[in-house]
Amino acid sequence: MVPRQHKRGITFIVRIALAVVPIFVGSNESVAAPPQSGPDDAPLTADALASMPLEALMNVKVVSTASLFEQPVSEAPAAAVILTADDIRNFGWRKLSDALASLPGLYVSYDRTYDYLGARGFRRPGDYNSRFLLLIDGMRLNDSVYDQASIGTDFPLDMDLVERIEYVPGPGSAVYGSNALFGVINVVTKKGAALGGAQTAVSVGSFGEKRARASYGWHGSNGADLLLSATSYVRSGQDLYYGEFDTPDQKNGVANGLDYDRAQYLFAKFAYRDFVFSAGYGNRTKGVPTAAYGANFNAPDSTSDTHTFANATYRHAFSGSLEVASEIYWERYDYRMPSLYGTAPAVVNVDGDKAIWYGADVHATFTGVPRNKIVVGMSVTRNARRDQYNYNVDPYQSILDDHRSSNIFGVYAEDEIQLTDRLTLNAGARFDEESVSGANASPRLALIFKATAADTLKLVYGRAYRAPNAYELYYTIPGTDGQTGNLALKPEHITTYEFIYDRKISDSGHATLSVFHYDVRNLITEVLTDSGLFQFQNVDRVQANGAELAYEQQLAGGATIRASYSWQRARNSDTGAALQDSPRRLAKLNVFVPVFHHSARVGAELRCVSSRLAQAGDASGYCLGNLSIGTARLIPHADLSFSIYNITDRRFTDPAGPGFTQSVIVQQSRTFLAKLVYGF
């Protein structure tokens, strides 16, 4: 028997599907399809891709994150989206969050310390992006204390080294386990061959922004490939006014010189035949101008985030029908935040953590059974250090000194079954056993129907979970604005239903309509208890309905356009109240145009977000425009670009988290950036 809440989700999706399908499938319009082997309407197999002409192949985007094997985006069990290195260059994106903010259904909030990601109406105050799984070349980056997906300047990789970004919305726990509630983000790095020698990049911008990068790429005749890179970044920031602190003894609410940002990144990657080894280091220090969690205003508070990782993979095809992929990794994340509290005399308090985790994954892809592509695998993770600490410096007083560890073991399987030439069933499930939160099962089913050579319909059902992290379970600080741990926390679970219609528009464009229903149980939320302490509790059950319409087209002469519109309604199931930081509407537009016979380029971006509830009142809606122009013809071996962000100097705000005196946080005014990339 289907539970009542599941029936509502199924009914919602089916009604939309029945309304939409006749409109498109019943159309007699003829749309050209790319050449392919087999029946004219058959899905694009690996053999079909290999036989396609180069011109058509270049317009077929392939994603590997959704199912652990390569497949065209139109055949993935999700409304997957891919951003390329050209997109990053053409639109002048400096942070991972800049790129993600351009995608359908996603939006970014910033509290002047960290960047936070929301999806389809969900962005919980106090959450450090723990409901998204962030990968670098398939390696899990979420740390073992906060489960944080770092997407701002704390992301430990220079954006110039990104080959592409694969975003798979919806539950991904059937493949990856915990954290993949709202989506999986896989950042794929470049190879040394993409640089082809030494390369430097320098940029200067508003508010003292400076960045310098030195990289070297090499590709040998024997197939060996090497990439080395180092980056240094600094930004002075701007003085910021907060009316909540507008008193004479607090400098009339102006935070002076506290918006600075400094970072260093190192990255190395070596590949030879089936073996790839990569290692990275990122250190970011950010000034904190907001006086969060009761800290003194206009004090020299800062936060430091250091991420170190090493990853080795081996992938080998033992036969034409069997391929085995394996991975082993080690990572460390250190966080430290000194803050000033109290008066006469003020006390320096240091808050921080040390996270060390390592693990391995191995999976096999077997195609020996006709009409089946089977993936089976297992993974193990050892969270060796989940340490959290808090102490006063002078006089020294230890307030928190917590040491934890945990283990995770998971097994998973997936089968892509070609039921007919037009109909595919993608069925997968994963079982995870965690030493702290127990067992969790995560299934996913996707029925994919190739209605015509241009039309693909998908019905997707999935479940995912997020285990409570060490910060939510164990962090305990007494006193005003303090926090208490909660050992009784249970994992969050999400059940989703989604209808996806993908329409191919000639050989160079497509449109996608997604209609979804989400049901989240045991949602972990930071609340203020009767004792005056913050605590994470399983207090909410949330449902969301919505629709996303996305369009992408390559035009004559190399111009491209990408647009999306999202409508979403996320509410507390018990009270009916709308969620904080949950916009009802999102609209995105990205246009790239080569000019002067491809001697120069222009990239324009528009992002609109409707109003969102804050702790008190709301953050008004806004539209934000960015413009980037560049050329690779002015100086030999060099690429010059100039970018303007928030081109109309729009004043806008984002909702603040529960530990802030401010209800909303003022965002960045108009800024400029000039950049030179030179290859030797």
CATH H-level homologous superfamily name: TonB-dependent receptor, beta-barrel domain
Query: Rough shape?
Result: globular
Number of folding domains? 1
Instruction: Report the average pLDDT across residues.
Output: 90
Query: How does CATH name the architecture?
Result: Beta Barrel
- Structural class call reads mainly beta
Overview of this structure, please?
The protein has 680 residues and is mainly β. The protein has one domain (4-30, 61-679): TonB-dependent receptor, beta-barrel domain (Maltoporin, Chain A, Beta Barrel), CATH 2.40.170.20. It is 8% helix and 53% strand. It has seven helices and 38 strands. The strands form seven sheets. The protein has a 22-stranded antiparallel β-barrel. A hairpin with a 4-residue loop joins strand 30 and strand 31 (600-609). The longest helix has 22 residues, at 4-25. The chain is globular. 45% of the residues are buried.
List strands and helices in order, with pairings:
Layout: H1 4-25, H2 46-51, H3 54-57, E1 62-63, E2 71-72, E3 81-84, H4 85-91, H5 96-100, E4 106-110, E5 115-119, E6 132-136, E7 139-140, E8 162-169, H6 173-176, E9 183-189, E10 197-205, E11 209-219, E12 225-235, E13 240-241, E14 254-255, E15 261-272, E16 275-287, E17 302-317, E18 322-341, E19 347-366, E20 372-392, E21 397-402, E22 406-418, E23 423-434, E24 438-450, E25 455-466, H7 470-474, E26 492-504, E27 509-528, E28 534-554, E29 560-572, E30 585-595, E31 600-609, E32 612-613, E33 618-619, E34 622-631, E35 638-645, E36 653-655, E37 664-666, E38 671-679
Parallel strand pairs: 6-9
Antiparallel strand pairs: 1-2, 3-8, 4-5, 6-7, 8-9, 10-11, 10-38, 11-12, 12-15, 13-14, 15-16, 16-17, 17-18, 18-19, 19-20, 20-21, 20-22, 22-23, 23-24, 24-25, 25-26, 26-27, 27-28, 28-29, 29-30, 30-31, 31-34, 32-33, 34-35, 35-38, 36-37
